[in-house]
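User: Could you go from structure to sequence for me? I need the amino acid at each position, not a summary. Structure tokens:
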């Protein structure tokens, strides 16, 4: 890992006067997410038939941090600084966003929890060994936005570039240009019917949070609760988005990233 700083829960390691480092030749390590296949032995055949797959572990990795003055001077940590670091990193309220900042490498965001072990030298705390455990088998990009205008004769082709071959569920901000019933459809999603928004008003923005099942700007009685989603295959996947009414749409989303920092 070629990095010296990270941001956790909105606060930067450098704001505390610390950097990512290595103690006494140790290395910063990561645990890959291994895939396990479930297979079935085919009678009278040496081959096995694939049934399903799953990840056995989430991403986890270890790094060290120290209070830094220069390459030759790692400073001791006093009790006030020790309390501040523990309060920031040792959280009991769930996962929080973590991003490792690296030059010449795009940032990957994780939902993570952190455990720390003090690194003692001559009876003084000189740094910490951090074990970082995420909530998933991949990270994410920063929030991305795509905006476009569509109508009944002019769909929009959205190119999905996630590393995870699956559906993903953006936030949709839909602003109709005229009154009426709006039917939204991703043509490639053959397993889901139209998203129907009844009696929409021109210039009245409707927000659909597809991941969390939250809507704003329209009565629940005027929504058929078909949450629009994007399809991602193993190759680049085009999603053709159509609408029966002219409207302006903004999609807010994060793409899965399987690279490990």
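Assistant: Here is the amino acid at each position, in order:
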């Amino acid at each position: 890992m070629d990095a010296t700083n990270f941001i956790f829960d909105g606060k930067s390691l450098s704001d505390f006067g610390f950097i990512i480092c290595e103690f006494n030749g140790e290395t910063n390590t990561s645990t890959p997410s291994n895939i396990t296949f479930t297979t079935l032995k085919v009678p009278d055949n040496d081959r096995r038939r694939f049934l399903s797959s799953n990840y056995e572990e989430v991403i986890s990795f270890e790094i060290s941090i120290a209070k830094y003055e220069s390459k030759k001077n790692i400073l001791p940590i006093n009790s006030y600084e020790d309390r501040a670091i523990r309060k920031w990193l040792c959280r009991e309220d769930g996962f929080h966003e973590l991003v490792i900042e690296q030059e010449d490498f795009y940032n990957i965001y994780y939902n993570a929890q952190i455990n720390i072990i003090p690194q003692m030298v001559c009876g003084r705390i000189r740094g910490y060994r951090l074990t970082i455990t995420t909530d998933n088998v991949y990270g994410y990009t920063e929030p991305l936005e795509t905006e476009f205008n569509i109508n009944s004769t002019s769909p929009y082709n959205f190119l999905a570039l996630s590393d995870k071959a699956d559906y993903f569920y953006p936030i949709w901000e839909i602003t109709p240009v005229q009154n009426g019933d709006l039917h939204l459809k991703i043509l490639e999603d053959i397993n889901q019917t139209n998203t129907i928004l009844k009696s929409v008003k021109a210039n009245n923005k409707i927000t659909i949070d597809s991941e969390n099942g939250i809507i704003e700007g329209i009565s629940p009685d005027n929504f058929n609760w078909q949450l629009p989603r994007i399809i991602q295959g193993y190759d680049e996947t085009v999603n053709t988005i159509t609408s029966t009414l002219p409207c302006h749409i903004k999609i807010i989303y994060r793409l899965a990233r399987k690279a490990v920092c």
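One structural detail worth keeping in mind: Residues 39 and 45 are 13 Å apart (CA to CA).
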